[in-house]
Write a structure and sequence with these properties.
Rossmann fold, about 280 residues, two-stranded antiparallel ribbon, 7 strands, 5-stranded mixed beta sheet, alpha/beta, globular, 2 domains, binds zinc ion
């Protein structure tokens, strides 16, 4: 099956916007009686019209569902209905610093989420970001609310793990920064990368932790900030714990974390383990 790159996505997005903006907005006095139009079905909402535009466009720029490969939709209704937050709370425990990190996650990693994430991160399908950002936002809100109930007022700095220059160059965007932005926050740059590390996906649990050791350092701006970490997928927690360690060493107060999906088989409930 043909892969569709970033440029293709952009072309599609502008075409949909161009098509959709030709649809007359229904707003008060400026709206003419729909019966005299005859060209556009006036019973469609603007959103529905956009959907139909997307379908029509799929004929010109072939596409398949990012979740299930069904042809002609960016993300089909069935897959969309399954990208819904089912919030869960855990605590990550850093055995070295003996620090805890509260964690809210939106979903367990499975299909169709895994496929959608893969196409989003590795195949440039940035058009699905809003569908991934919706459940992520729920986890972020839960994390924020759990802190807010303890302290008022609250100014949170949202921080995502920095992506290496190489991966940014390769993709042209940082997937997690894009997701956090789509979820409604502007991630703050409070972390820098000390050294490159091996690809985590090839490593076992213990290797992941040693691979992440001292990878990040806090920037001076981290001092005194109250931080919630945001990430897309959590497997062992090594990345988030390293972010927390570096930020805390730099004088930040890391109060929690929010993750879209966690990987069940590798995840250990360290809260119970260390209780
Ligand atoms: Zn689908």
């Amino acid at each position: 099956m043909a892969k569709h790159g970033h440029g293709c996505d952009n072309a599609r997005r502008s075409a949909i916007t161009a098509l959709a903006t030709t649809y007359p907005r229904i707003s008060g006095k400026s709206h003419r009686a729909s019966s005299d139009s005859g060209t556009l079905p006036s019973m469609w909402s603007f959103q529905e019209f956009k959907e139909h535009c997307a379908d029509a466009l799929a004929l010109a720029l072939p596409i398949s569902c990012a979740g299930c490969d069904r042809p002609d939709r960016n993300l089909c209704q069935e897959c969309r209905a399954r990208l819904v937050a089912d919030l869960q709370y855990r605590e990550l425990f850093d055995a070295e610093s003996l620090q805890r990190l509260p964690l809210w996650f939106a979903m367990e990693l499975g299909e169709p989420l895994s496929g959608v994430l893969h196409r989003f991160k590795e195949q440039g399908r940035t058009s699905v970001s809003k569908h991934l950002a919706t459940p992520l936002r729920e986890a972020m809100k839960a994390s924020y609310d759990s802190v807010r109930s303890q302290e008022l007022p609250l100014r949170i700095s949202w921080v995502v793990p920095p992506s290496s220059r190489a991966s940014f160059r390769q993709r042209g965007y940082s997937p997690i920064a894009l997701l956090a932005t789509a979820a409604g926050v502007r991630p703050e740059k409070l972390l820098a990368i000390n050294r490159t590390r091996a690809d985590q996906s090839q490593l076992g649990r213990m290797q992941r932790f040693s691979n992440m050791k001292a990878v990040y350092r806090a920037l001076p701006a981290a001092q005194g900030k109250k931080v919630i970490l945001v990430d897309d997928v959590l497997t062992t927690g090594a990345t988030l714990l390293e972010c927390a360690r570096a930020l805390r060493a730099g004088g930040a107060d890391v109060v929690g974390s929010a993750v879209l999906a966690y990987t069940p088989k590798n995840f250990q409930d360290t809260r119970r383990e260390n209780a």
